[in-house]
Amino acid sequence: MGHPVAHSRSPMIHGYWLKTLGIPGAYELKDLTPDAFVPFITNLAANGYVGCNVTVPHKEAAFRSVQGHDEASKAVGAVNTLWLENGKLMGGNSDTHGFIANLDDRAPGWDVPGCRALVLGAGGAGRSAVYTLKQRGAEVHVVNRTVSRARDLASKFGAKAHGFDAVPRLLRDADVLVNCTSLGLAGKPRLEIDLGPLKKTAVVYDVVYVPLETQLLAAARKRGHRTVDGLGMLLQQAGFGFRKWFGGNPKVTPELRQMVEADIEAHQRSRP
Prior knowledge:
Strands 7-6-5-8-9-10 form a 6-stranded parallel beta sheet, with helices on both faces. A 4-stranded mixed beta sheet has the order 1-3-4-2, sandwiched between helices. It is an alpha/beta fold. Helix 7 links the parallel strand 6 and strand 7. The protein has helices spanning 10-21, 34-41, 59-65, 71-76, 94-106, 124-135, 147-157, 167-171, 215-222, 231-246, 254-270; strands at residues 51-53, 68-69, 81-85, 88-92, 116-120, 139-143, 160-162, 176-179, 203-206, 226-228. It is 42% helix and 14% strand.
C-alpha cells in the first residue's frame, strides 16, 4: 500500500510463493492517498485484508497507527509491514530481516571474530544495517556526507560516526563494507570509492538492486571480494511479511531470483 505503487515487484514475489506453496491467497497493489490510508488500515479485516506492506509516503503514518510494534521497528523507528494478531494491528520492519538474511545467505561466515563493518549512508537502509550488524556483535562505523546524521544514527545503536574523508582509513580494517546510499542506483551519480585499502577477505554489500551489479560490486568482484547485491535483500524481506500473513516457509529459490532478475533487466532495456 502506497502512493504510487505501480512500480512494485512484490506481487510477482508473493504470487510465486502462493503458487509454489499451494496457498489460496492473493497479494495485490493498493494505491491509497494519505487521507485514505489510515482509515483503510485501521479497518484491514473489514476491507478484506490480513495485512500489507507499506511504502512511501505512508511509513510514518503506519508507525503511529499500529497497536503494537516488533522490536526491530521500534529500534529503527520505521514500520513497513502490517498484520493482524488476535485482532490487533501490528507493525514490523522487514528491511532489518531482509538485510541480514541476505548477507547470511550470500556470504556465509562474514561475521568473523572481532568483525568490523563500515556502513555508508545514514538513511533508512543505513539504520536497518547498523541495527542488525550491532545485533550480531559487529563493531560498526557509519559514514555520511552530513556527519551530524551519522552521529545521530551511531549514538542510537552504539556505533561510531565519521565523514567520507575517513573512508580510506576505515577500509583498511573493515571485514564488511555496505553501501546504503542511493549512489550507484540507476540514474544516480556513481559511488566514488577506491577499494585499494580493503583486505581481500572483506565482503562488499550494496543494497542497490537496479542495476543488479553496481559499479561498486563490479569493482569488488574484479578484486576477488565476495559480493552481495540488493536483490536478495528485497526477496528476503518479502518472506518476513509472507510468513505473518499466509504462514508456510517461503524460500528464496534460484527460480524466483531468476524471474525477478529477468523483470529488472527487461525494464532496464525498455528505458529510453
